[in-house]
Specification:
Layout: E1 4-9, E2 19-22, E3 32-33, H1 44-47, E4 54-60, E5 63-77, E6 83-92, H2 97-109, H3 111-121, E7 122-124, E8 131-133, H4 136-142, E9 160-163, H5 166-178, E10 186-191, H6 196-201, E11 204-209, H7 242-274
Parallel strand pairs: 9-11, 10-11
Antiparallel strand pairs: 1-2, 1-6, 2-3, 4-5, 4-10, 5-6, 7-8
Helix pairs in contact: 2-3, 2-5, 3-4
């Protein structure tokens, strides 16, 4: 597994607040406090409710990024005896898509299993951030890779928004297991308390939320299908297809020519009527 792994947790002392640490690639290396780079996008804070189980999968600076929050620690409490909630973030290259999809599938199919694996890998330390992540977490997550087909097909279910129900989650899981990811900045969001209007306005392609009122047992449509521009390989990834550039320039040139022709005709008519 070549992806970068980050864990957010808290120590038990008052001065040991929540912090992100990056899991070293080598077991003997020292972990360092470091926030995942994609979290500099503050829109993410509006897309998920971090205190509850939430999942966000997207693209950032040519990378794939996955964040899962609201994973409860089994025994650790903070200095006010509040339950500590862990989060995990994974960042990989496009070639690591299968790995990130596998972790997302595991989180949606059996969140308690993922919660336990992460919890067991975090131990208390009196110094620094107040916790340390054991290197075994990396190999533990690798066991999920068999959940996703090695020969995934291109093509996606239609984007939209729906209630965070077991039925719709199963549809999303089936899609993640068998299909490649579309080229959107925010590909998938599963969370609580975020209305579909926020998901739509932020450009989320596929979203499930507890406050979306489309019921699971509706007879026909399970999703709010939102009209959107069809995804292309370069959408929201920081690059623009050459065909789009050329088309834009041709349109601009045509518009300029039309304006010139109209001006000439208007001048000609004015000249005639002036006589």
């Amino acid at each position: 597994m070549t992806i970068d792994l980050y864990i957010r947790s808290s120590g038990v002392n008052e001065e040991q607040d929540y912090a992100w640490v990056k899991l070293p690639e080598h077991p003997d290396a020292v972990q360092t406090p470091q926030e995942p780079s994609f979290l500099s996008d503050k829109s993410i804070d509006e897309l998920i409710y971090r205190q509850h189980f939430s999942l966000l999968l997207g693209r950032y600076d040519g990378k794939l990024a996955l964040q899962i929050t609201g994973l409860t620690a089994s025994t650790r409490r903070d200095y006010q005896n509040r339950v500590i909630r862990n989060s995990i973030a994974c960042i990989g290259d496009p070639e690591d898509e299968r790995t990130l999809r596998s972790i997302a599938v595991a989180a949606l199919e059996d969140p308690q299993s993922l919660e336990t694996r992460i919890d067991k890998a975090i131990i208390y330390t009196p110094e620094g951030e107040g916790f340390r992540v054991l290197p075994v977490l990396r190999s533990s997550l690798e066991q999920y890779e068999g959940l996703v087909s090695q020969e995934s097909e291109e093509g996606n279910i239609r984007g939209g928004f729906g209630k965070k129900s077991d039925k719709l989650k199963k549809e999303v899981i089936t899609w993640l297991k068998t299909k490649t990811l579309p080229y959107h900045r925010y590909i998938l969001v599963v969370t609580d308390f975020v209305p579909k209007e926020v998901l739509r306005d932020k450009g989320v392609w596929l979203g499930l939320s507890s406050v979306i009122d489309k019921e699971v047992d509706d007879a026909d449509v399970q999703w709010y299908n939102i009209e959107r521009i069809e995804a292309n390989k370069h959408a929201n990834t920081g690059s623009t297809p050459i065909g789009k550039i050329i088309g834009s320039r041709i349109w601009s040139a045509s518009l300029l020519i039309l304006i010139v022709v109209i001006a000439i005709v208007a001048f000609f008519l004015f000249t005639i009527t002036g006589r």
